[in-house]
């Protein structure tokens, strides 16, 4: 399989670096992305890292990510993010969970998105399911089937308490390939 993978946003400390909570989205998405790329390559897949580290604005980051993704003929585009909005910094004993975004129900990425969502939920996260988002530039403008993974909520103590980059990456890889490494 040929796969594009990228961490969302610019690196921490730059403009458009993503959400912040108990952890920082840009930092954690890069850790997970590095592990996903490594594990997929170890399984024999061709993987392109389309992460952008030099965007001058949010729009510029998205434009550069889409251009990098569209430069490779692949079977799947994967964007790794962390969600926010739970505002549960003390924890309530429940995770807010994982969701995976795709353009539409007819997208060829939907089958992978369902499997990735289930695999991450098996780590103890609430399965928030698949969301259809036609308004997201990444999902709208990439030529290959694309999914945007919201691994967990970075402002939920219960989510962050369960989170480990290696385990998260393994779940993503299993959801895409059906294989453990």
Large-scale geometry? globular
Q: Distance between termini?
A: 16 Å
State the share of residues found in helices, binned by percent. Answer: 25-40%
- Element-by-element helix/strand order: EHEHEEHEHEHH
- Tell me the total number of β-strands: 6
* Major sheet description: 6 strands, mixed
Gyration radius (Cα, Å) is 15 Å
Please report the number of helical segments: 6
Low-confidence stretches: none
**Structural classification:** alpha/beta
- Largest sheet: spatial strand order: 2-1-3-6-4-5
Chain-averaged pLDDT:
97
Written account of the structure:
By secondary structure, the chain is an alpha/beta fold. It contains six helices and six strands; from the N terminus they run βαβαββαβαβαα. The chain has a six-stranded mixed beta sheet with strand order 2-1-3-6-4-5.
